[in-house]
Amino acid sequence: MAAAPRTVRLLAGPFLAVVAGLFVGVLAGWAAVAVLVGLTRDDSPWGDLAGVVLGLMVGAVVGVVVWVIGLVVAARRQFPRGRRGGAVGLTMAAAATVVVGLTLLVEALDVGDAGGALGFERRVLVALLAVAASSAMFPLWDRFGGARHEAPTVVVTEVADVPGVPGVVGVADDESGRPAG
Which of the residue ranges 25-34, 49-58, 102-111, 119-128 has the most confident prediction, judged by mean pLDDT? Predict the structure, then answer.
């Protein structure tokens, strides 16, 4: 089976990190809600609400942590050492910028949810655009970001044979054997 093209792998890494973060975050949130609601007394009027709020917070935190871990794993597979942190940082910054920027823009333009059947369509649209923007950052980083220069390979061409005194007669810049200079 042939490997997928690099661009597909670069797009798939952050997307799969988002999917994993959402899945694990939802499961953790549901579990937290179930535990917290189960621990409240029946006569507590706000116990269920507190359980739901805390469950949402737990789910969100766990989801973001899993997303970042997924980004780090994807970056380790796609980029050489020294270029991974920038890809992860750019992806997280893009997602945050899209969410905050589009939310503020929609609120400033007073684009309402009145026409929507469920009332949260614009939030779903902002979330989908954030996923698309964050998934596009790995290919952008691959094309434009970070240092691309690899460290030169040092090859020892000849070692002097003097007992007790290590000495290097010549060092090459690369594997060609030409002396450094």
Answer: 25-34
List, for residues 73-96, the tens digit of each pLDDT value.
Answer: 999 988 888 888 888 999 999 999
Strand partners, 170: 158
Q: Which 8-state DSSP code applies to residue 179?
A: B
Q: Give Cα 171 distance to the centre of its chain.
A: 41
Residue with tokens 């007669």: 169
The answer for residues whose C-beta is within 8 angstroms of residue 157's C-beta and 6 or more apart is 169, 170, 171, 172, 177, 179
Distance CA 97, CA 99 (A): 6
- What is the token pair recorded at 19? 């999917």
> Please, how many CA atoms are within 13 Å of residue 175, restricted to the half-sphere of its CB?
1
Task: Give the mean model confidence (pLDDT) for residues 112-128.
Answer: 70
Residue 150's pLDDT band (cuts 50, 70, 90):
low
User: By CB neighbour count within 10 A (0-12 exposed, 13-18 middle, 19+ buried), where does 131 fall?
Assistant: middle
Q: Any idea where the domains of the chain sit in the sequence? A: 6-144, 151-181
